[in-house]
Amino acid sequence: MIEPIAEFGTGEKIRRLGSDGSPDLQRLSCASFNQDTTSLAVGCKNGYRLFSLSSVDRMDCIHQGEESPDVCVAERLFSSSLMVIVSKSTPYRMNIYHFKKGTEICNYSYSSNILAVKLNRQRLVVCLEEALYIHNIKDMKLLKSVLNTPPNPKGLCALSVNHSNSYLAYPGSFTAGEITLYDAVNLKEVTVISAHASHVAAVSFSASGTRLASASEKGTVIRVFSIPDGDKLFEFRRGMKRYVSISSLSFSADAQFLCASSNTETVHIFRLEHHSPSADSPSWSGYMGKMFSAASSFLPSQVSDIMHQDRAFASVHLSAAGMRNISALSMIQKVPRLLVASLDGHLYIYNLDLQEGGDCCLVKKHRLYESADETPAAPELEAGGLSYAETVSTNTNQDSSSLTGYSEDGGVKRGELIPDHEFADDSLRLDDEQEFPPVSFQDT
Questions:
Q1: pLDDT tens, 151-197?
Q2: Interatomic CA distance for residues 226 and 131, integer angstroms
Q3: d(CA 54, CA 51)
Q4: Rounded Cα–Cα distance for residues 122 and 77 (Å)
Q5: pLDDT of residue 298
Q6: Which has the closest alpha carbon to 178: 247, 225, 135?
């Protein structure tokens, strides 16, 4: 999830030039891919927009929500109709919508500003600067309040999407690069990982929940740990010449690749494999590998660590630097792609060669915002589905005060809509007024 940059308001000029020499604009407040990278949600001054990622050549707008202005958090639960929205006008309140029915399910208010929201099929986690609230996704009951956490002004946290390994990760210290690993199902702390010497800047789980990637504020080294034991598996060097601010880390679905984007013009992709030079290898690279491996035992630990750090397998060079973005690896139309969503209001799609790596080729650039002089268009149809207006009209006779739950095993196939009938007899119960934070219903 991209955090809004306070000094850059929507529509304000930022201090960089586009490829044509003209100033670019920050047109979006936030952007987030859903848990299986089948859709993209973006927030802006007029609300939020939700896009399908099923095609390279076209971006279908699934829904355009204008219930809340200045959206700074927009998260979708897989391919369901559940959207979580936070507005800059009421940053302490979380609104949960069923966007196909056009109804608000509920809204929760907290003691301070909401910095991030994370979802999986079991839990909804709300991150404040010094607290975390863990809810049951089926009935939105508050299960646990993790209070007095180390100051976390950026709202840094990650939630595994796998229901068998539902872990939560967040900064474990304000003075060092520690990560607390928390069991979101059994509601207990698992371990604290000493990930970096400086503060943690980014964390991300693999789809299986068995690996965790992290980067520090320096942004030079990225590490991957096994979960839940916290052992270091991989270490990658992003660069040595300059410190950068890494804005996102994302695994591929099979956890064989990891991409990292920052405030520089380069997005790096790392291959997660252990490779050691063969003893019988006659190649020059094999010889040098053995030589460096032998020499590293006589060198200071800092130098030895650098020699053992792998470099990027592939990379992307953006047209300009300075604009925050998020990246993700996905299979679209059976081809591996790198997706980069930027707050300049565009989605960039690149092809990724899984065998050779190297520089990735840009295949498409999509606009995610509406120009000030154009009339908002109605959301386009999803493949084989109804438009938003048609869906609302077909549900007018249904009870709009509750939302059917979501199957733990539903949506296993990539892009599959979780069937509403799976929890038809176990609808969400959001009427507990004694719960804290209090639930507030929209009049229906």
A1: 999 999 999 999 889 999 999 998 889 999 999 999 999 999 999 99
A2: 25
A3: 9
A4: 11
A5: 55
A6: 225
Q: Does residue 49 contact residue 63 with C-beta atoms inside 8 Å?
A: yes
3-state helix, strand, coil split of the chain in percent (to 5) is 10, 40, 50
Tell me how crowded residue 115 is: count the other CB atoms within 10 A of its CB.
22
| 8 Å CB contact between 95 and 110 | no
Q: Per residue in 270-322, pLDDT tens?
A: 999 875 544 444 444 445 444 544 544 454 544 434 434 567 999 999 887 77
**What number of other Cβ atoms are within 10 A of residue 204's Cβ?**
21
For residues 212 and 411, give the distance between their C-alpha atoms in angstroms, rounded to a whole number: 23
- Cα distances from 110 to residues 55, 145, 397, 420, in angstroms, run 38, 11, 33, 30
CA 296 vs CA 103, 106, 227, 239, 292: distances in Å? 62, 58, 28, 20, 6
Phi, psi of 293 (to 5 degrees): -65, -40
Tokens of residue 342, six digits:
């930027």
CA dist 238 to 112, 242, 308, Å? Answer: 35, 10, 13
Which pair of structure tokens corresponds to residue 97? Answer: 């919508």
